[in-house]
Every structure is written in C-alpha cells, then in structure tokens.
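ARCHIVE ENTRY
Sequence with per-residue tokens
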Amino acid sequence: MMMLRATLLSGVAVAAMTAPALGQAPDSCPATLRYADTGVEGLEELRRSFGPFVEVMEEITGLTVEFFPVGNRTAAVTALQFEQIDVVMTGPSEYVAIGNNVEGVQPIVSFARPAYASIFIVAADSPYQSLEDLKGARIAMKDVGSTTGHIIPAYMLVEAGVDIDRDVQILNLGGTLFEALVNGDVQATATGVRDWPGFVERHGEGWRILVESPQMPDDLILAGPHVDPDCVAFLKAVTMEHGERLIDATLAPEGRERYRGAALVDVDDSTYDVVRKAYAALGLSVED
C-alpha cells in the first residue's frame, strides 16, 4: 500500500523545541510511526480526517507520522501481521477481531465519549413496548460489523429471547436504514444513540426510543506486537498528558462530532467482553 508522509512541522528538532514534552521518545520507538484507522477508506480521507491529530502527535512525540490506509479490520490485521503499520485507531468490534487474529496487540489509549450506546427506534404509535414484542418484525440495522448499529442490537435481541434467524428479519441497510423506517418498509431500526437528535430533527416527533443499551466500550488506539513496550508506554504517557489537545485536533475536521465531550483514558480490556459475548452469542466469526 502507498504511504504518505504526514509531517506538518519542519523536523524533529522543531518539534522538540515547541512540544511541552514528557521527554524525548525512547530509542526503541521507530523514527517514523505508521498510523492507520480501520474506519476510514483511502489515503486522502485519512489525511483529511486525521491531519490535525497527526500534527499534534508529531509535535508532542518528536516522531514523524506517516498515514497508512487500511479501511477495514481485515486489512489492518494483515498490515499488523506483516509489521506494515505501528499504531491503528479502531472501534470496539474491530479491536476484538484484531486481538483474536494478531497475538500481542498493545492498547495505548481509549476515547471515552458520552452517549455511546445502541437504541431501537419505532413509530410513536406502534404497539411495541419491548424487544420481545418485535417478534415478526422487520428491523433495519447498519452495516454488518457496526458495534452500535449491528453487533450490540442483535445481541440485545438474543438476550431478550428473540431468535434473530426465525423471529425477526434483520436488514443491514447501512445509511438507508432511517428511510426504510420512515417509509414503512421496516417496523424498527437499530442505530447509535447519537443519531437520535438528528433523526427527530429530520423526521419529526412521531417516533420514540423503544430501548437503549448500556454504555458501549470505547474506540481506541493500539500498537502492534512488534512495537517495543517502552515505546508503547511513552506513547500512552504523552497522549494522556496532552489529551485535550488531541481531542480538539480530532474534532477539527468536519464530520468528527461523535468525539465531542470525549476524553483519553486508560484502556480497560474487560469492558470489551460484551462485544466478545455478542460475537459468541450471534455465532459470528472474529477470524480474519
């Protein structure tokens, strides 16, 4: 894959002079850190979405950062296995899948953000009062593998005693799931709770949230197993120290509102057990 140097300062010396550093990066860190994101397709979009973030990362670490586009978890797994990338930002479902395929991945920091949960939306005058009531219904969900728009909602149905193969018809409609609900093609739709205000703004008050899940585990940044642990510790320390600046940089490009109110925190791997349980309950593979 093609890599593009994302250096936005004139060099390491300038970064060292301007950064309120916690110390120079240890020699075990690569001089060039290769960065990827499993949710962004293509080099140009990766640069647009994370240019400001990378600028701050270069300043506070003194390292050069290069973009390496992967776009999905399968490509990320391959790139990590062949040591083509050093760090990757990914979602909860992707983290579980990557960890199952790449032994020894090292979480660095997670993006704790408010209102990260799954909801089911139904018409306000519909007869549905619980997930169990949805038996016999057609349900629109996001793309296969979406944490809040597919994996967790399907798991919620299973936990409510609904056979997702026989009792309901799940349609993974991606970005058209709301239109399907409004047009009456489905009786319910499952999505992230942050989609709710925009949905009501566009389609009016004739809708209600049937049920909302508990808070979901966070997006996170992880390092490949080939990255020295001392370097991982340094990256964790410096990102935690400059968390507010990094969050502000993440919010700078258009379309990053989901991270508003987020904070960089330690990764608690046990919080991702709900995703692991969901994969198991749904019979979904986390293999590459």
In short: Residues 43-61 form the longest helix (19 residues). The radius of gyration is 20 Å. The mean pLDDT is 89.
